[in-house]
Specification:
Elements: H1 8-21, H2 24-31, H3 35-57, H4 67-93, H5 96-103, H6 106-116, H7 124-141, H8 143-147, H9 151-175, H10 183-198, H11 211-235, H12 241-247, H13 250-263, H14 269-286, H15 312-318
C-alpha cells in the first residue's frame, strides 16, 4: 500500500497544521507590536490553551517532574523563546516569504550537528543533497541584494538562521527527555518559560494594545501554538518519514502564497530556483527521493517536538536518524524511546 494511504486523517491533520503555520506571519505583522511583546502574548495565550487541554486530557496527572526533566524542558524553552523572537524579528526586517525560506535551512543543522558533534557517518549522497540545498539557500537569499546594500535583508537573514540554530538546540534538549513527558506538556513548559523570561523585560500595560490587536495575539497563542501542536502531535506518529518530508513544504508554500496575496511580496526567478533546490535537498536528505521502497512504518509513540520553529514539527521527522530527537538519534541504535519529533 502506498504510504499516503496509511492514515488519511493524519495526513489531513498535518496539512491543516502546516497550512495554519503558513499564516503566522500575518498574525504577527497585523498585531503590530514588538517581536518580544508578540512572543510574550503568544506564550500567555498558548499556555492558557495548553493548560486547559492538558488538564482535560489528564496529562498533568502522573507527570514526572525530576530536576533533570525540568532542566531539559526549561532549557529547551529558553531556546524556543529565543527562536520565536529572532524569527519574528526576521519577518519584520524582511518579509514573510523570505524569512520562512531562510529559516527552513534548519533541518540541515541537525544533519551537520550529527556529523561534527555526534560523529555520525554520513553518505556522500547526503552531503551532495546538503550542498545542493546550500546553493539553493544562497539563491533564495538573493546575495545580490545584500551586496547592493540591503542591510536589513542581511540582518533579517542572520536572525532567521540564528533562530533555526536555537531551534536545533531545543530539539536536542527535548529529545533527551525521551518519553518522560508528553510532548504537550513540554510545549506547556516552553510557553510558561517564555512568560517568566519576558515578563520582567517588557511593559505589560494592556491599555496600549487595541482590541483588534488582541485578536491577532490570541491567534498566535491559541491557533499557531496550541491548536497546531495538538494537530501535529496527533498526526506525526501515524505518518512515515518520506511522506512527512513532502508535507513539510505546505508551510513555506502557504507562507509564500499568503505573503504574495496579502502584502504583494513575490520571489524573483533566482529565489524561485533557490526554493526549488532547497526543496530537493530537503527531500533528498529526508530520503523521500530514494528509490528504495520502505515498509509501512510500525506504530510509534506520540513523542514530538514542540516548535513551530514554527512548522518544524514535520521537518524533524523528515530528517533521517542521526542524533537526539529530530536529530534522528543514533542510526544503528534506535530504541523505542528515540522517536521523531516536531515554529517560529
Amino acid at each position: 500500500m502506498a504510504e499516503i494511504g496509511i492514515n488519511r486523517v493524519a495526513v489531513c491533520k498535518a496539512l491543516a497544521a502546516q497550512g495554519l503555520l503558513g499564516t503566522l506571519g500575518i498574525f504577527l505583522l497585523e498585531a503590530d507590536i514588538s517581536s518580544q511583546q508578540a512572543v510574550f502574548w503568544r506564550c500567555v495565550f498558548g499556555a492558557a490553551f495548553l493548560t486547559a487541554y492538558c488538564s482535560v486530557a489528564g496529562y498533568f496527572r502522573g507527570a514526572v517532574w525530576t530536576r533533570k526533566v525540568l532542566a531539559l524542558a526549561i532549557g529547551g524553552g529558553v531556546c524556543m523563546v529565543l527562536n520565536w523572537v529572532l524569527f519574528f524579528e526576521a519577518i519584520r526586517l524582511t518579509w514573510i516569504g523570505f524569512a520562512t525560506i531562510t529559516y527552513h535551512i534548519q533541518p540541515f543543522w541537525i544533519v551537520l550537528v550529527g556529523i561534527f558533534v555526534m560523529k555520525e557517518a554520513v553518505s556522500a549522497a547526503k552531503l551532495g543533497w546538503i550542498a545542493l540545498a546550500f546553493v539553493g539557500f544562497l539563491l533564495a537569499l538573493d546575495v545580490r541584494q545584500i551586496f547592493n546594500g540591503e542591510g536589513d535583508l542581511l540582518l533579517g537573514a542572520g536572525f532567521a538562521v540564528l533562530a533555526s540554530l536555537f531551534y536545533t538546540v531545543t530539539i536536542f534538549a527535548t529529545r533527551s527527555l525521551g518519553s518522560t513527558l508528553k510532548p504537550h506538556l513540554v510545549a506547556w513548559v516552553h510557553t510558561m518559560t517564555g512568560i517568566v523570561i519576558l515578563a520582567p523585560l517588557l511593559p505589560l500595560s494592556v491599555s496600549t494594545i487595541a482590541m483588534p490587536q488582541w485578536g491577532w495575539l490570541a491567534g498566535l497563542g491559541i491557533i499557531h501554538t496550541g491548536m497546531v501542536y495538538i494537530l501535529l502531535y496527533g498526526a506525526l506518529p501515524k505518518l512515515g518519514s518520506a511522506l512527512i518530508a513532502v508535507l513539510i513544504f505546505v508551510y513555506p508554500a502557504t507562507a509564500l502564497l499568503v505573503d504574495l496575496a496579502v502584502y504583494g511580496h513575490g520571489l524573483d526567478s533566482f529565489q524561485c530556483l533557490g526554493l526549488l533546490l532547497i526543496g530537493c535537498g530537503t527531500l533528498g536528505v529526508g530520503g523521500a527521493l530514494s528509490h528504495r521502497k520502505s515498509a509501512t512504518p510500525p506504530p510509534q509513540s506520540d513523542r514530538s517536538l514542540p516548535g513551530t520553529g514554527d512548522g518544524c514539527a514535520l521537518r524533524q521527522r523528515a530528517v533521517p536518524e542521526a542524533s537526539p530527537d529530530p536529530i534522528r538519534c543514533a542510526p544503528a541504535q534506535r530504541s523505542h524511546r528515540h522517536r521523531h519529533a516536531t515554529p517560529p
